[in-house]
Amino acid sequence: xxxxxxxxxxxxxxxxxCTPVWLMRQAGRYxxxxxxxxxxISFMELCKNPELACEVSLxxxxxxxxxxAIIFSDLLVPVEAMGVEMDIIEQxxxxxxxxxxxxxxxxxxxxxxxxxxxxxLLESIRLLDKELGGKVPVIGFAGAPFTxxxxxxxxxxxxxxxxxxxLIYNQPATYDALMSKLCANLIGYLNAQIxxxxxxxxxxxxxxxxxxxxxxxxxxxxxxxxxIEGITxxxxxxxxxxxxxxxxxxxxxxxxxxxxxxxxxxxxDEAWQKVGKEFGxxxxxxxxxxxxxxxxxxNRVKDILTRANNQxxxxxxxxxxxxxxxxxxNVELLINAVHKYSKR
Amino acid sequence: xxxxxxxxxxxxxxxxxCTPVWLMRQAGRYxxxxxxxxxxISFMELCKNPELACEVSLxxxxxxxxxxAIIFSDLLVPVEAMGVEMDIIEQxxxxxxxxxxxxxxxxxxxxxxxxxxxxxLLESIRLLDKELGGKVPVIGFAGAPFTxxxxxxxxxxxxxxxxxxxLIYNQPATYDALMSKLCANLIGYLNAQIxxxxxxxxxxxxxxxxxxxxxxxxxxxxxxxxxIEGITxxxxxxxxxxxxxxxxxxxxxxxxxxxxxxxxxxxxDEAWQKVGKEFGxxxxxxxxxxxxxxxxxxNRVKDILTRANNQxxxxxxxxxxxxxxxxxxNVELLINAVHKYSKR
Lengths: 344, 344
What we know:
The structure is a homodimer. By secondary structure, chain A is of the alpha/beta class.
């Protein structure tokens, strides 16, 4: 079985020759060749340059036996596409210069046309898909509505999420208007990525772990489900990632994804039981393990594979994005160990 | 029943007239009278001034019908007592100027004498206990060994905990030496607080939620249990707080505390079931709720009380420390609502 099939078959819970593996942020700072390109161009400029975005997406595929190629892009691309002024600041992350906190500000947000406002991303996907020539599938992605809304309302990384929670508690109509608009935009955005060549999509709800389960079920889950239901091509697998709250696993099946991506705060077997065996799971190695000695890395890979027990529907990944300064030799070791120790 | 009994009886799972309530960081920045004192004195100076530390601990007790008075202090007091240079920097939090990352640095750390090195804290507790005159019990506290070790090894708030995790994975003997020394110091530190008048103690493992359950069980839980087992007076209730990973609830009973303090990421009834009904639980309101409208605050209080169902062993609290700028009128509403809606 080639890298062309392994990942997509696993997403559909079909049999595979060994467990597929890819890494969140695999096109990124831990690679020298990525850093070389970033010396010449800012993060957002790189997102908007299809040739270079395609190139950095290919870099990890050339080095390692990865089973999928996620397109190099950012969660905030659709935010900028709505005309919201923002930037990605080194060491600090995304900054929204004029955070969205009123009904008037929400009403002004447009429904954007992906083929126009995010044409560069779609071109990057087309280029990447062409370069890969059907040998490795392309993954497209978007933030879930709550995570995008959090960025837009908080204005930057947040510790306590007081503005977005304040909107939920004190201005529910504004919150609903914002989330509904984001849903409409994200549906078009994901469908456009699929039309451009993405063979699977991942929806990142990176910040939803800050919520109580009651708030998540009532104020977040229905919107994420709306986005996933809006994906037209039902043959395209959808992966849902949420970080930082294992107590939500009991309800995550309801988002409508095929695969639930786990962070490292849970044992994979217990988490899979909670999510439901009708779904696949992705994960769940702590990215910090890649800073350990090779024996430890291999032991941790084996532990996760033992818990997954070669059941159909496991995609190996980290529990969060790969960290800057991760030793490249451990990345190679991890990827090869996944394939080696999961041979069917 | 008076405020003298309610909290301690609940900690021992005895019957109460209504559910006791106190708030983590109840002596803090949301109170104007606290800010007035802080205008004249830095955070660490305030910790080291028994009269003023007693005064700020009393401030919330004067304002509200709180059922316990936690002593004003900081998790890093025992770190400084070990001779490690540090400071609490406004907006940034604690900073350790020369982080502990080698066996040599660990070996140099002394076993400190609480009655000498932290005499000011013990004097604060004696003053507070005397001022309260038996009407409200004093809570003492310490960080759990892992959380203290994280600060000492990382040097400040950390996002990825790479240094402390690196110590666990790559220098296990150094990690064990550090944790063992912290255990010995924390046992003496907690016993001294009890001798000075603390009627209950809380152990904060604020950062342990960054770990996988395997790492937590193997590398953290045994040390926390060692500290709690080292408390001499077995009649003093011990509360254990951990933030950010509900998947650990299944094993938290093993730390040996009487009460498990929950964050807001779980439904209280489900969490209590996981922890085990032989334990009490504390919590679990999201501190952000206090920024909502009064009706919402009251509804959330009622929801938690309904889930606790007046079973013996519930202490009402937030899921994390009260936030700066929290509206004082909502704090008052919360405390009165807890008592009102939990009347037996």
